[in-house]
Amino acid sequence: MQTSQRRTRAGTLRHAGFGVLATVVGLAAAHLVAALTVPAASPVLAVGSTVIDLTPTPLKEWAIRQFGTADKLVLVGSVTVVVLVLAAVAGIVAARRETPGLLLVVALAGVAGLLAVLRPSAGPLDAVPALVAAVVAVVSLWWLHRLDDRAHREDHRAEGPARTGLSFRVDGPSRRGVVLASGGLAAAAVAMGAAGRRVTSYRLGGTDVALPVAADPASTFPRGLEQRYAGITPLRTPTGEFYRVDTRLTVPAVDVDSWTLTIDGDVDQEVTLTFEDLAAMPTIERDITLTCVSNEVGGPYVGGARWLGVPLADVLARAGIGRTRADQILSTDVDGMTISTPLDVALDGRDAMIAIGMNGGPLPRTHGFPARMVVPGLYGFVSACKWITRMTLTTYDAEQAYWTERDWAVDAPIKLSSRVDTPKPLSESPAGTVVIGGIAWAQGVGIEKVEVRIDGEAWQQATLGPQVTDDYWRQWYLEWDAEPGQHFIACRATNKDGEVQSDVRRTPFPEGSSGHQEISVTVT
Ligand SMILES: Nc1nc2c(c(=O)[nH]1)N[C@H]1C(S)=C(S)[C@@H](COP(=O)(O)O)O[C@H]1N2
Ligand SMILES: [Mo]
């Protein structure tokens, strides 16, 4: 009794392991095949992206709050756990009744294949990786069970049923075969996974493009306060440190030579521009601060950069929009993801552009290579479409974009806001002069003043850093004679229209956070 129970438990574990191993090998093989064909069609990515898209907004908000930019990893990690549990079940089932077990594996791959093919930009090739996953996983599982059965029979012959309980014996030749096969499959999975990554990063390599010299350049960039006060956000965000927010698990690889931008919908005539066409148009260079609607008060999703691009109005004029009845530009990226922008806002004279350069270089892949939209004053989710391939002139009645379908605001101007960069919340500073410093932004209007409040007392005016443009953030600082104890520091900005930053607390959903940031620090 003892023995047979042990045998069952150890056997079940081993069979579950076979299911997991076979599935992982299948996924790795599929990942490699996807890397060679359509990277986004990899079952892991196809399932992961679908989960991200289907996650209800409140849950996504919660994930972003809890895990920051690791939110996607957490969501996808949870899916992975579910898949592996199902794979383990398939392994156990297959040991008892082969066909249903193998069919469960096929079903798992089938779901991934279906999701890959249902992606907006999918073609027939996109089913191939899931097909590969199914074949490799089924064959691996079948093979492992074959070897295992043989080992089982050998044990019986050699020593009678009582000994078979020690399932992890590796001394019989067939038992050794099982161990070797498992090790071999695991090694193959690691190798194929690594090769897949290699191939992808090789294919995604180049963002080398010749950028035009700006016909209308930005003015000389001033020296920021960060030179004097290290804790303050640099006046220009280094490209590699610029915040990144998008729905993508992997960064799209766009081949600039075959990339095009089409303007269609309610226009005089549809036009399609190549990168060369675009870069040949007169360009502007502007310092603009981008902000994400998901930025909490005091949050990190805001960045200042120098953008090079073609004025949006000029690009749209290529298609002719004089007679359009559209109220929306529906932008589509290389994967079919959509972002909507109010047409009247984009064309009201602000420096809206199709950007092709950032901080003196081409756009990095993470920030939309080879081209993206930038509209000063609008949150990124209603303007900053990265990897843009199409702008459709349409109406909000006729078509909805990704986030508007998810109940986010339609027209979302960036809210007047400010942030304390130094001292850090909950930090300790020695008594004496402490520099309180940070940034404030009021895109389109400009910052008039920033005030600081310590321990709930009167607001004190901070000193502003250099003015760049009204579309750009402004640094500020205040020297504080700090005495020992716990203190509370708050800040608020006033824009050049005299509007004071609202102290009404709002969550990012549905149109951006508001409220005053107040931090607690200790002076020793
Ligand atoms: N194609 C695409 N463009 C996109 C997004 C996206 O998910 N896909 N996210 C938008 C959001 S929400 C923001 S805030 C900005 C962020 O731009 P960044 O990642 O370059 O900082 O890109 C916007 N453009
Ligand atoms: Mo965003």
Biggest beta-sheet profile? 5 strands, mixed
Bound molecules: the ligand Nc1nc2c(c(=O)[nH]1)N[C@H]1C(S)=C(S)[C@@H](COP(=O)(O)O)O[C@H]1N2, molybdenum atom
Q: Percent of residues in beta strands?
A: 15-25%
Shape: globular
Rg of Cα set: 29 Å
Helix-strand sequence? HHHHHHHEEHEEHEEHEEEEHEEEEEEEEE
Distance between the termini: 69 Å
Structural class: alpha+beta
- Largest beta sheet: what is the strand line-up? 2-1-10-5-6
Q: Number of folding domains?
A: 3
Number of helices: 11
Average pLDDT figure = 91
Low-pLDDT sequence parts = 1-6, 162-168
Helix content: 25-40%
The count of β-strands is: 19
Summary keywords:
single chain, alpha+beta, 5-stranded antiparallel sheet, Sulfite Oxidase, Chain A, domain 2, 19 strands, binds ligand MTE, 3 domains, 11 helices, binds molybdenum atom, Immunoglobulin-like, 524 residues
How would you explain this protein's 3D organization?
α6 (128-159) packs antiparallel against α7 (173-203). The chain is built from eleven helices and 19 strands. The radius of gyration is 29 Å and the shape is globular. The strands form four sheets. The chain has a five-stranded mixed β-sheet. Strands 3, 4, 7, 8 and 9 form a five-stranded antiparallel β-sheet that branches. It has a five-stranded mixed β-sheet with strand order 12-19-18-14-15, with no helix packed on it. The chain is 36% helix and 22% strand. It has three domains: 2-163 and 173-205, no CATH class; 225-406, Sulfite Oxidase, Chain A, domain 2; 417-523, Immunoglobulin-like. The chain has 524 residues and is α+β, with helices and mostly antiparallel strands. A hairpin with a 4-residue loop joins β5 and β6 (338-342). Residues 1-6 and 162-168 have low confidence and may be disordered. The chain has helices at 2-36, 43-54, 57-67, 71-96, 98-118, 128-159, 173-203, 275-280, 312-317, 343-346, 402-405, and strands at residues 260-265, 271-274, 284-291, 302-311, 328-333, 338-342, 353-358, 361-362, 372-374, 388-394, 417-422, 428-429, 432-441, 447-454, 460-461, 463-464, 474-482, 485-495, 517-523.
